[in-house]
Amino acid sequence: MSDSLNAVWPMDVGGPAGSHEERQPPVDDGLDVPDPARYYSPEFMQREWQRMWPRVWLLAGVACDIPEAGDYFTYTLGHESFIVVRQEDLSIKAFHNVCPHRGNRVALNDRGSVERFTCAFHGWRFCLDGQLDQITDEHTFAPSLVRHRPGLVEVRSEVHCGLIFINMDGKAPPLREYVGLPPGYLENYQIEKMHVVQHVQSEWAANWKTGQDAFVETYHLPFVHPQTQTVMEYYSQQDLFPNGASRMIVPLCVKSHHVADQDIVDEGLRFMMKDAGMDPDSYTGSARGVRQAVQASKRARAERLGLTHYRELTDGQLTDSWPTTLFPNVQLGLHPEGVFIHRFLPHKRDPERFIYDTMILYRYVDDPAYTVPAWMGLAPGTDVSGRSRPPMRRVPLGVPPQLGEVLDQDSELLPIVQEGLRSRAFRGPLWGEQEARIRHLHRELDRYLNGEK
Predict the structure, then answer these.
(1) Which helix (H) or strand (E) holds 74?
(2) Segments of the chain assigned to CATH 3.90.380.10
(3) Is residue 437 within 8 Å of residue 40, measured between CB atoms?
(4) What is the pLDDT of residue 201?
(5) Minimal CA–CA distance to 23: which of 9, 2, 38?
(6) pLDDT in tens, 74-110
(7) Radius of gyration in angstroms for the set of CA atoms belonging to the chain, rounded to a whole number
(8) pLDDT value at position 3?
């Protein structure tokens, strides 16, 4: 690849033929303009609950959060809650978080470790495998009422690359078939060797799809996040995969083609070089060569530290952002040092509110030359060693989430977008080619709602 990216549309970063970076053939998802009511209608929300959410694989959490037998976490999606728990044989099972006696939530904490689950309402106990262990005062129940030994109701669960997925539909395809990404795409990052260093849930005044839509395109970067233009190209390579999956490749360590001066190495690029273990003062090239220099620095550092998984990644993967969507509501920001997990969780009642759940996973290396990239936006003093798992921070509606400059800008904008979607003058979104991933996601959603899946 030359020092300077060819920033023309359609964007192609020039990935090696046969690699995961290679530009994929286009997919024709049509040019329909959907009814904007999908972003605010209670009836549309109800159709999603009936026809889509119970049938898809949902990213419930990460395996590193439950390393030992009895470790568990809870996952909430709208009005449903689930328990994901490590078994005695170190396998993983998931259950509806509801007591079969009177419907109480069995697990009340975000995470914990237990030998048995005990309902706090009447003390019914359940084993880690969901089997009923004890009914309080069982002699006071008619034997025929509890003869079936009512335990926790299990849901399907599968683990892929350290990510735990659940599915309420017994007829859904296997997870690996459902994901839609080619073999090795996620595996090469070795996410299973990372651990959570930050977890925040914040409530935003918008539909979950309004949130998701904003995160699957870079068309808005020059206007909502102008500060990014000196460190990334806002044209991105758009690639669409089966089952609603998609990704874009966003070149980093370069200046946007909107920036007139493409040669001077400014503070933004110096910042990126420091993150790669480089001394910016020793760099004598122009801004056009920073991306390649950072790639070379990261590859050399990885070899010195024995991070052999870097050998499976292209040079572009060492610098660029690969935001990857898993249908319906997950975006993974993939980097060799760490992964951003974004989940757009629907509100239990209000179609114009959603929970933005973000986790940052980091692969710790005990070496002063390998540090947490500053773009992760971690608070000073954050423990990244993996010895302790930080608690989830919850941010109520209307309170700035304090997730860093870029994400906070999104949180300010989306409620305004949501209001505009309700205008009688708005006839529906006009998605352009830079927004192909949005159309791809909504086309897959419509397949579920229309009975095509």
Answers:
(1) strand 71-77
(2) 36-55+187-449
(3) no
(4) 98
(5) 9
(6) 999 999 999 999 999 999 999 999 999 999 999 999 9
(7) 23
(8) 47
Q: Evaluate if residue 328 carries a pLDDT over 50.
A: yes
Give the SS3 label for residue 167. strand
Burial class (CB in 10 A: 0-12, 13-18, 19+), 251: buried
The single-letter code of the amino acid at 330 is V
Decide: residue 313, CB within 10 A, 0-12 exposed, 13-18 middle, 19+ buried.
Answer: buried
At residue 75, φ and ψ (nearest 5 deg) are -130, 130
**What tens digit of pLDDT does each residue of 202-222 get?**
999 999 999 999 999 999 999
3-state DSSP assignment of residue 113? strand
- Is residue 46 within 8 A of residue 270, CB to CB? The reply is no
Model confidence at 4, in pLDDT bands (50, 70, 90)? Answer: low
End-to-end CA distance of the chain: 41
256-280 pLDDT, tens digit per residue, is 999 999 999 999 999 999 999 999 9
Does domain 36-55+187-449 fall under CATH 3.30.1360.120? My reply is: no
Round to whole Å and give the CA distance between 341 and 365.
20
Question: What are 451's two structure tokens?
Answer: 């009975």
**Location of structure tokens 């951003």:** 340
Tens of pLDDT along 384-419? 999 999 999 999 999 999 998 999 999 999 999 999
Name the E strands within 109-210: 111-113, 117-118, 125-126, 132-134, 154-160, 163-167, 195-204
Burial class (CB in 10 A: 0-12, 13-18, 19+), 97: buried
* DSSP helix/strand/coil, 394: strand
Distances from the Cα of 145 to the Cαs of 97, 119, 134, 135, 345, in angstroms? 21, 19, 15, 12, 37
Tokens 């801004």: give the residue. Answer: 287
User: How far from the centroid of its chain's Cα atoms is residue 281's Cα?
Assistant: 36
Q: Which CATH number fits domain 58-162+164-171: 3.40.50.300, 2.102.10.10, 3.40.640.10, 3.40.50.150?
A: 2.102.10.10
Q: Which position has the token pair 């994400």?
A: 407
Over residues 375-383, the mean pLDDT reads 82
- pLDDT tens for 17-42 read 999 999 999 999 999 999 999 999 99
